[in-house]
Amino acid sequence: MVTAVYVQEVADLNVEVERADGTASVRLRGDLDKLTAPRLKQVMGELIAAGHVSIVIDTAALAFCDSSGLWVLVEHQRKAGERGGSLELTGVQGVLRRVLDVTGLKAAFDSVLTAQP
C-alpha cells in the first residue's frame, strides 16, 4: 500500500516523501546545507521511527550539499542499518558526487547511483 505524497519546503530545500510498507522514497531539490539539514534530519528520523527503514533518496535535483547535509545522510544510513534497513542514494551528481568521491564516504552507503548524463 502506498500512502499520499507530501512536500515540505524549508529555505531552499524541497523534501518530497512517498511511503510504502517499510520503505520510503525521498526526493530532494535545492540546497542541503547548515540551514536546511535540520529539516531533512527531522524527516529521516520520523521515517525510521515509523519503521520505514529501506530508504531511497533521489538527489538528482540537489544543487548543493555541504558537510552538514552529508552528515545527516551518513547518520541516517547508520540508523537505518542498525534496524536492518538500508539507505540508497540515486541521481548523485555535482557537488555531492565530488564530496562522496573525495572523502571516500561513497562506501558508507548501501548504494550510490550517479546521475546519467
Order of helices and strands: EEEHEHEHE
Number of helices: 3
The share of residues in extended strands comes to 35-45%
Biggest pleated sheet: 6 strands, mixed
Shape descriptor = globular
Query: What top-tier CATH class of the domain at 6-55 and 68-87 fits best?
Result: Alpha Beta
CATH topology of the domain at 6-55 and 68-87: Transcription Regulator spoIIAA
**Radius of gyration over alpha carbons?**
13 Å
Order of strands across the main sheet: 1-2-3-4-5-6
Secondary-structure content class: alpha/beta
Poorly predicted runs: none
Query: What is the CA-CA span between the terminal residues?
Result: 33 Å
Task: Name the CATH superfamily classification of the domain at 6-55 and 68-87.
Answer: STAS domain
- Total number of beta strands: 6
**Portion of residues in helices?**
25-40%
Could you explain the architecture of this structure?
InterPro entries: Anti-sigma_ant, MlaB-like_STAS, STAS_dom. It comes from Nonomuraea guangzhouensis. Residues 13-117 form the STAS domain. This is STAS domain-containing protein. The structure is a single chain. The chain has 117 residues and is of the alpha/beta class. The chain has a domain at 6-55 and 68-87: STAS domain (Transcription Regulator spoIIAA, 2-Layer Sandwich). Helices cover 33% and strands 39% of the residues. The chain is built from three helices and six strands; from the N terminus they run E-E-E-H-E-H-E-H-E. A six-stranded mixed sheet has the order 1-2-3-4-5-6, covered by helices on one side. Helix 1 (37-49) runs parallel beside helix 2 (67-82). It is globular and about 30 Å long. The N and C termini lie far apart (33 Å).
